[in-house]
């Protein structure tokens, strides 16, 4: 039989937590939850930032590859000893011997001769049946001339290409594009300078692309600080692009035109 005094002692030891003890426990738990939440948010921001940078780098490499691929076609002729005749296409007029027309700082036209029946244009489309029928060998002067217009579409933030009557996006996620044309005297065949509106023969094209990743300001360390890449672009090309809260990356390349340089 339990003694009454023993039961009274057990009841005194099983009174539970006091209000102060409960509040302290809740406060400690709250700090732990806040700490874990902050770690989760920081890790998520870091992951999204890295994803954005990775996407920019991948798109940047693709942009340079596409522009170099298309510009390397410009000026190709079945017989290098011959020159291009006067021609027109995609709203551009090509004087004798030219393969690139500088439309603006964001747009240009190129022309080249198809080498064989399996050639494709900037959109990946094959030559028309009529053009294919005219190609009997890779080195005949009668091979068809392909004209393409490469331009920046600010409405869709993309580099697009127009060939024939159709237009297709080549690269998306582009904030801005700037073309600079290396020009010089035709007889010397040497670049003497770069400009966006050259009057002499174009021997090279230098292209700068500002990539942007989708996202919000929370992806960056500061929502108010201007991106360094965006600030550099505005300073270099005298533009005033507004901060769009994305992650930016600036890339640049140069392509010398075929059969134009010494």
What would you say this structure looks like, in words?
It is a single chain. This protein is an alpha+beta fold and 262 residues long. It has one domain (40-256). The chain contains four helices and eleven strands, in the order ααββββαββββββαβ. The strands form three sheets. The protein has a five-stranded antiparallel β-sheet with strand order 3-4-5-6-7, with helices on one face. A four-stranded antiparallel β-sheet has the order 9-8-10-11.
In short:
This protein has 4 helices and 11 strands. The protein starts with a helix and ends in a 6-residue tail after the last strand. By secondary structure, it is of the alpha+beta class.
Helices and strands in order:
Layout: H1 4-13, H2 19-73, E1 87-89, E2 92-94, E3 100-104, E4 107-113, H3 129-134, E5 145-153, E6 158-163, E7 166-172, E8 174-184, E9 193-195, E10 201-213, H4 228-237, E11 247-256
Antiparallel strand pairs: 1-2, 3-4, 4-5, 5-6, 6-7, 8-9, 8-10, 10-11
Radius of gyration from CA coordinates: 32 Å
Low-confidence stretches: none
**How many distinct helices?**
4
Give the terminus-to-terminus CA distance: 114 Å
In terms of DSSP E residues, the strand content is 25-35%
Number of domains: 1
Q: What characterizes the major β-sheet? A: 5 strands, antiparallel
State the strand order across the main sheet: 3-4-5-6-7
Instruction: Count every beta strand, where a strand is a DSSP E run of 2 or more residues.
Output: 11
Principal-axis shape equals elongated
Q: Please provide the ordered H/E string of secondary-structure elements.
A: HHEEEEHEEEEEEHE
Mean pLDDT: 83
The oligomeric status of these chains comes to: single chain
Q: Indicate the structural class.
A: alpha+beta
């Amino acid at each position: 039989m339990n003694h009454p005094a023993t039961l009274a002692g057990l009841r005194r030891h099983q009174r539970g937590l006091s209000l102060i003890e409960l509040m302290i426990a809740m406060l400690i738990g709250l700090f732990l939850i806040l700490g874990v939440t902050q770690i989760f948010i920081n890790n998520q921001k870091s992951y999204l930032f890295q994803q954005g940078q990775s996407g920019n780098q991948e798109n940047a490499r693709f942009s340079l590859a596409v522009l170099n691929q298309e510009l390397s076609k410009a000026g190709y002729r079945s017989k290098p000893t011959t020159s291009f005749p006067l021609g027109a296409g995609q709203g551009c007029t090509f004087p004798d011997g030219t393969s690139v027309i500088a439309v603006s700082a964001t747009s240009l036209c190129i022309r080249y001769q198809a080498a064989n029946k399996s050639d494709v244009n900037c959109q990946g489309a094959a030559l028309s049946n009529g053009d294919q029928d005219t190609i009997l060998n890779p080195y005949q002067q009668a091979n068809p001339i392909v004209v393409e217009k490469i331009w920046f579409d600010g409405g869709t933030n993309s580099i697009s290409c127009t060939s024939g009557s159709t237009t297709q996006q080549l690269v998306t996620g582009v904030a801005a594009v700037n073309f600079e044309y290396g020009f010089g005297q035709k007889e010397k065949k040497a670049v003497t300078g770069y400009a966006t509106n050259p009057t002499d023969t174009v021997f090279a094209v230098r292209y700068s692309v500002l990539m942007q990743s989708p996202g919000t300001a929370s992806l960056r360390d500061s929502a108010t600080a201007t991106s360094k890449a965006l600030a550099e672009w505005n300073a270099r090309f005298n533009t005033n692009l507004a901060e769009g809260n994305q992650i930016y990356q600036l890339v640049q390349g140069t392509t010398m035109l075929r059969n134009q340089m010494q």
